[in-house]
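Write out the bound-state structure for LLP.
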Amino acid sequence: MAAMPYPVGTVANSEGHLEIAGCDVVDLAERFGTPSYVFSVPEMRNRARAYVDAFSSRTDEFEVLYASKALPVTAAYRLFAEEGLSVDVASGGELTMALAAGYDPSLIYMHGNNKTDAELKLADEAGVGHLILDSFDEIDRCERVLSRRQDVMIRVTPGIEPSTHTYVQTGQLDSKFGFGLEDGSAERAIRRVLASPALNLVGLHFHIGSQIFETEPFRLAVQSLAELQGDWCRMLDVGGGLGISYETEDEPPKIESYVDMKIEAVREFFGREVKILIEPGRSLVGNAGVTIYTVGTIKEIPGIRTYLSVDGGMSENLRPMLYNAKYEAAIANRAGRPAETVTTIAGSHCESGDILVRDVALADPQVGDILITPATGAYGHAMANNYNGMPRPPVIFCEDGEAKVVVRRETWDDLLARDA
Ligand code: LLP
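---
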């Protein structure tokens, strides 16, 4: 079934303004300025609960990890900790944020294909529960750097290519990530780690990619990892990757059926109870977030197209430029009115490729309108940058009509703050 890209419960209010988690988006733009990232807290909580409920109705042996790269914001770490999720961090920086949010270190799983000495030391001092080992060099580094015996898992690249953008495929043999299955590296890594006094091998991990709608590649990955299992293998981390709806016609699998399929695959191919770990990022936060902008300039080129420029662009949403990602858009202060004016939404950066949405129909757009793009909750703030000296937008959490700034807007002065 087609799924709306907006948070559940987004409505047009009596003033014809879009309302998210009870907050009038046009009011938010007046109070906090634009561009801003706006999140529905209930949508994030409901998605976390959908994962937990889908597992707990079928097994006690599971952990849901928040893949925090999707929205590395202290308040988000705190929210998912409250929902009982563990957390996946992929760098010392994400680890620092998880710890600052009060995450129990034993619930932290640390990834990274090139963890530095400094990152491993930070993890060691913090008492991080698990490291996911990615290379033979890292095994050497762990033996040199770690002060105590560390629980670890091994990341395997099973040689599977789901249909998604090649930049976000990660499970193919030709990948910088993990230990290859086909070339025997995974088996060698297992033998190497089992023989290491510094490391305690407890399981296997795979992550085949992101924004995936098919379920078969995940099944195949579980099947191929099963051949590596031994008595030591108490847990299997099946990664993240569930796709979301960016456009209304998108039909991603539901969280429940996706989890069911993963549990079934583990039971079928492992043939025994292993603890199942899952690492969703995008599917927890993507549809919970929108970005709001102010329309600044409208340029009509007769017979060619109409450009509508907003006060952001490739600095706060790099995904259209990087992955050719498609988004919807609407005029938030003219909600529910017929969208009949086709425009191309451009950002304010010095590049012609700075296009957020091509050929989208809007309701009579005017300078000063508030434009909204849905489904920007994942990897928007996370990949924001200061190109052209653009200060990064604030992150605003909304719940029951209350809006709270959880990351403030960057200022022009912030851009000078690191000058030495
Ligand atoms: N686990 C590992 C080891 C990962 O590398 C990732 C994402 C996840 C879990 C979470 O995957 P998700 O559930 O979010 O699909 N910047 C790209 C996405 C890169 C994903 C990187 N790894 C984008 O904007 O589409």
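---
Residues 41-282 form a domain with the TIM Barrel fold (CATH 3.20.20.10).
The chain has two domains: 11-33+288-416, 41-282.
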